[in-house]
TrEMBL record:
SUPFAM superfamilies, sorted: ClpP/crotonase (SSF52096)
Record's signal peptide: none
This protein's name: Methylglutaconyl-CoA hydratase
PANTHER family membership: ENOYL-COA HYDRATASE, POLYKETIDE BIOSYNTHESIS ENOYL-COA HYDRATASE PKSH-RELATED
Source organism (scientific name): Actinocrispum wychmicini
InterPro entries: ClpP/crotonase-like_dom_sf, Enoyl-CoA_hydra/iso, Enoyl-CoA_hydra_C, Enoyl-CoA_Hydratase/Isomerase
Length: 249
């Protein structure tokens, strides 16, 4: 059986590529299993500093594979593992960048929202198509709703309307929409910036972004811990000595 998801590591960046163009990179059981496996591999690999979610073919991800879903209960579909995938992306201690050269639909948009940074070609489109087939965008709401402006969330979840990359930027779903011939360069721009951050500091900052607090006391403690940490002291010394810190090759 041919692999549907590939992983390659180059200079600290793990590219995880959805490669099932025959069904528009739909989230089939095989693809879900391989994606979960490669995400875990990248997270556990000390060489990896940043993860990029990429795709082959004209579509980033069409959502759940409806051919597998027909006539089955949710447990039988295996969709219970999809929240695990979204959570792996969302809670990964390493920054995750989604790269879209084409459309995302339903569960595919959930993956985009789970990533820390999302960059799309300006020709890419998006839609929450669930209500149009009589189902609810329940699982992806966990990653999508914190991103979207509330009015836009109501409109787009309820209507299922297709919207373009420019609007996706405006409502907070993605970070950047660029011409297709600039997509690779835009992703590299982000991965280069992310690679400059201290690995432990990046992981802690991701945790802070997931669960922001308003307690100055705990934040002062966290700040002091990182100023005194080995990574923090190395970063301060590198700044003073006008050199790269040790985590930058």
């Amino acid at each position: 059986m041919a692999e549907l998801v590939h992983i390659a590591v180059d200079r600290g960046v793990a590219a995880i590529t959805l490669d099932s163009p025959h069904n528009r990179n739909a989230l089939s059981q095989q693809l879900r299993g391989e994606l979960r496996h490669h995400l875990t591999t990248a997270i556990d690999d000390d060489r990896v500093r940043v993860i990029v979610l990429d795709h082959t073919g004209p579509v980033f991800c069409a959502g759940m594979d409806l051919k597998e879903a027909g006539g089955t209960a949710s447990g039988d579909q295996g969709v219970n593992e999809f929240p695990e995938i979204l959570d792996l992306i969302r809670t990964s201690p390493k920054p995750v960048v989604a790269k879209l050269a084409g459309p995302a639909r339903a569960g595919g948009v959930g993956i985009v929202a789970a990533a820390d940074i999302a960059v799309a070609a300006d020709t890419a489109t998006f839609a929450f198509t669930e209500v149009r087939i009589g189902v609810v965008p329940a699982v992806i709401s966990v990653t999508v709703l914190p991103r979207l402006a509330p009015r836009a969330a109501h409109e787009l979840f309820l209507t299922g309307e297709t919207f373009d990359a420019t609007r996706a930027v405006a409502i907070g779903l993605i970070n950047s929409a660029v011409p297709a011939d600039r997509l690779d360069a835009e992703v590299v721009r982000y991965t280069d910036m992310l690679s400059k951050g201290g690995p432990v500091a990046l992981a802690a900052t991701k945790a802070l972004l997931r669960e922001p607090v308003s307690d100055f006391g705990s934040m002062l403690k966290l700040s002091a811990e990182f100023f005194a940490s080995e990574e923090g002291q190395e970063g301060i010394a590198a700044f003073a000595q006008k050199r790269n810190p040790s985590w930058i090759p």
